[in-house]
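Progress against Task 2.4 (sequence-to-structure conversion) is shown through the following example record, which the project officer requested during the mid-term review.
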Amino acid sequence: MLGHGSELPVLGLDADDTLWENEERFHEVEARFRDLVAPWADHATADAALLATERANIARHGYGIKGFVLSMVLTAIDLSNGTISAKDLGRIVSWGHEMMAHPIELLDGVARTLADLVTTHRLLVITKGDLGDQLSKVDRSGIANLFWQVEVVPEKDPDAYRRVLSRHDVEPAAFTMVGNSVKSDILPVLTIGGRAVHVPHTTTWVFEEPDPAEVAAVNFPVLESFSQLPDFLVGQAS
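Structure tokens generated for the chain above:
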């Protein structure tokens, strides 16, 4: 990770669907899953069943590809009443392997923007999910050298942010978080007294949909693209 002097402010960055494409990979595999279980369920039924299984498994297995694959396996067994073949279950597992090996696709303008930001901020990546998978993405991203620190947390809630910032001696009032998820990147940081900038992605995972009442109760800036971030931060500092 890149070393910076402690005089530079810390800028928090989400990773999946903020720095690189992620959700689209899941959507592609979900389409394959619908086709696989089509003998037993229509698309809407398959989607609802998989979503329910994922929801039940998050507390046990967390976020990420491994939990997603396990949920597909369990859902396929349930929808087929146990008749799905071992070969087809193996196909599901192979999709997970494929997802984990997929090249990292940086979103538009990310590399150029980070090259600017690293001269003015210490870049602290805060991402949630499977530790090995998330660190592998960072290593394969081609931009890991720009990050001051990388933190992988099981959940992004106020306590998680407090722990991360305390570990790095960063006061919440001096911290800004940037991410695509209002639920995970914006609301928890505002709760602890930090600042947050929303950069929406084209797709949002259903589990990242925030409570509308919570969103209505706060104000936060929304940028059209990650590339707007340096100018926005300069304006905030002036």
